[in-house]
Amino acid sequence: PLQKDHQVQFQMMEAAYYHLPSPSDSERLRPYLQRQAIATPPHFPQT
Amino acid sequence: MVNNQFGMIGLLTFIRAAESDPNLVSLAMGQDLTALGLNLNSMENLYQSFGGPFSDGPARPQDIDYPVPSEYLINVSIRDKLAPLSKMKHYKDDLLFFLFYTNCGDVMQLAAANELYQRDWRYHIEEKVWIMRVPGNTHYDKNGSIERGTYYYFDAQNWRRVPKEFQLDGQKLDTKPPIAIT
Amino acid sequence: IDEPPGFLERSEYLLKDWITIFHTHATRDPIKSFSNFVNKMNIYGILKGDEALTRFFRHATQMCIDVTYRNDPTINNTKIFKYIDPYVRLIALLVKHSGETSNSTTKLNLLNKILGIVIGILLKDQEVHKQNFQQLAYHRIFIMLFLELSSSDPVLENIMTNVLTAFCHAYHILRPSIAPGFCYSWLELISHRVFLQRILATAPQAKGWSMYSQLLVDLFKYLAPFLRNAELAKSVTLLYKGTLRVLLVLLHDFPEFLCDYHFGFCDVIPPNCIQMRNLILSAYPRNMRLPDPFTPNLKVDMLSDINTQPRIHSNYAAAIQPPNFKKDLDLYLKQRSPVTFLSEIRGHLQISNEPGSRYNVPLMNALVLYVGTQAINQIRAKNQNPTMTNIIHNAHMDILQNLAVDLDNEGRYLFLNAIANQLRYPNIHTHYFSCALLYLFDEANTEAIQEQITRVLLERLIVNRPHPWGLLITFIELIKNPSYKFWDHDFVHCAPEIEKLFESVARSCM
C-alpha cells in the first residue's frame, strides 16, 4: 500500500492529469504581423 | 523450486497474466518502444524536434519557433517597405498552401488562393478543404451538379495531398477568389 | 508586512503599462522602450532597493497567476500568455541589463531571486488550491524565461552555465515529490528540446550531465512507489510513458550520458520496471560497434573493447555505509580474513530506511559494484584481464558466493539484479560480472541459486526490446555451454511457456 505522502502525491497527480500541458504551452506566441490586412471570404480560415 | 515471486514460478505468473490481462504486466513485459512516436532509426538527433513527453509525434516545422535573424521578423514599421509579392506562379503548391493557411486575413491568402484556383484546385466552402480532380483521370460519374470519382484533397493536418474517392456537389465549390487589390 | 501604502497599485499599474508597451511598439525599438520603462520603475520607487524589487516581482508574479485562475486555461491560454510573456520578457531584460555587462553575479542573483519567488508562490498556491491547482502559468513563466535567457546573445551566452544551474536548482526544488500537481509540466520543462540541447549538448559536459542526472533521479524516485503495483493508474501510465519517451531520446542522442549515470538510475528504478531499466542499460558509446551476440563461437574475451574501463559517475564506494562496515570490508578484501566478516554482511544489507522494502537496495548495488571493481583492479595489477579462472578463489569471489548462499530468495534476487545491472556494452565490468554470474551458476550448492540466476536473466530477456548486449552474451553462454548442464534442470521444464521461451532463445542462438 502507498505511504501516506505518496497517497497525497497521487491525488495531486490525478487532478493534474485532467488539465495537462500541451506542446503549444512551451512555444512562443507568434503574433502574425499582417502586411496587407483584407477581408477574405468568411469560408477561408480566419485564424 | 523457489515457491515465491522470486523464482521461475513468479515469472511464470507474470507470463500467464500477460496472456490474460496485458495491462497487469505493462511494466514487466514492457511495450513496443517503436510505437511511441519517435523515429529511433533517424540519423539525425531526435531532441531538436522532440514534441515533448506527452505527444505522439515529433514537433513539425510549423510548431517550432526557430530563432531567425531579426530581419526575418516583419517589423510593423517597415512591412510596407518590403518587396512586393514575387510571382506566385513560381511557387510550388506546397508553398501556396502554406501561405494560404498561415496568412489568414491578409492579401497573401487571397493571392495564394487565386494561384491555386489557376492550377485547377477548388476550395470546398463547407468542408473548408482544397480539392482537385486527379489529372488524366476522366472517369467521373456526373448526375446534375453531383459528381463522383477519385479526387485529390490537401490534408493540412498531415500536410500532404491525399487521393480519395468521394461524391462532390459542384455547387459547393468556391468560385474564383477575388483578386487581391494590392 | 509593512508594505508602503499604494505599492500594490503602483506595481499593478507598471505591469499593465509594460504589457501595453510590449504588445504595441516594443518591437519597433525594444531597447528604447525598455530603458524608458526602467526609468518609470525608478520613479515609482521599485528599483530603490532589494526589498522593493522583491515586492514588485511577488506582486507581478501573483497577478500573472491570478489571470490564470480568472480565465479557463483550456480555452483562453492565448490570453493568459499575452499577459505572462511580456512579464517574462521584462524579467529577462532586467536580468540581462542588471549590473555591468561583465558582472554576472548581479544578473544571477536577480535571476535566482525571481526563480525563488515563483517557486514560493507555486508551492503556496499548490497548498491552498490542492486538487484545483493550475500549473499553466508557472509552466509558461519557466519555459519562456528559459527560452528568453537561452537566446543567442553574447551577454547571455556568457552566463549560460550559471543560468542552467539556476534552472536545474529550481526544477530540483520543484521536483514531483514536492510539487506533484506540477509533475506533468515539470517533465515537459526538463525534456524541452532547447533545455536538452543546452544542458546535454552545449553545456560543459561534467556540469550539465551531472545536474540533469539529478533531475532524472528525482523523477524515478517520484514514480517508484506508483510503479510497484502491477496495475498502473492512467495518470501514472501517462507519466511513465512520457519518461520512456525522454529516455528514448537520450538513448538515441546521448547514450554516453546514460552509460555514465546508469548506476545512480538503477538505484532508484524499482526492480519490476524491467524494460525501463533495460533501456538505460542498453546504452553504449556511439563510437563503439557491438558484435552480434548471436555470432557463432563469438570470442568475447578477444573483443578489443572488452577490457576498457567504463566511466561510472556515481560515488558507489561512499555509498557503502556505515563506515565500520566499509573498513571491515576493505580489511577482508585485503587479507581474506576474518572469515566471520562474511556472516555479518547480510545483517548490514537488511537495514533498510526505505519503508516497504526489507533490503537496502542502494547498499546492495554499491557493495556488488565495489567488490567487482576491487577484484578487477587486483587482476589488472597482475597485468591480466578477467577470465573464468582468475576471478575465483579470492576474497572478492568469497563475498559474492557468500551472498549467493546466505541471502533469502528476496535478498538473492536483489543481489543477482545488482550483478545483472552491470551486464551492459563490451567493457571490463560487463566481462567480469558475466564471468562471475556464470561461475556462481556453475558452483551453486543449491538449485535455487541456479533457478534465481535464470529468473533474473530471463525476465530481462522476455520483455520488449531493447536488451543490453552483456545480458544476451551471458545468457547465450549459459544455455550453449554444456558444462553448465543448463537443460538438465527441472526449472527449465517447469511449464510449457517457460520451455518454449528457452527453446526460442536457443534457436536464435543456433
Automatic annotation (TrEMBL), chain C:
Subcellular location: Nucleus
Keywords attached to this entry: Nucleus, Repressor, Transcription, Transcription regulation
Major localization listed first in the record, in broad terms: nucleus
Annotated family: Belongs to the CNOT1 family.
Start and end residues of each CCR4-Not complex component Not1 C-terminal domain: 147-506
Gene Ontology cellular component terms for the protein in this record: CCR4-NOT core complex; nucleus; P-body
UniProt protein name: CLUMA_CG000016, isoform A
Gene Ontology biological process terms, A to Z: negative regulation of translation; nuclear-transcribed mRNA catabolic process, deadenylation-dependent decay
An annotated Gene Ontology molecular function: molecular adaptor activity
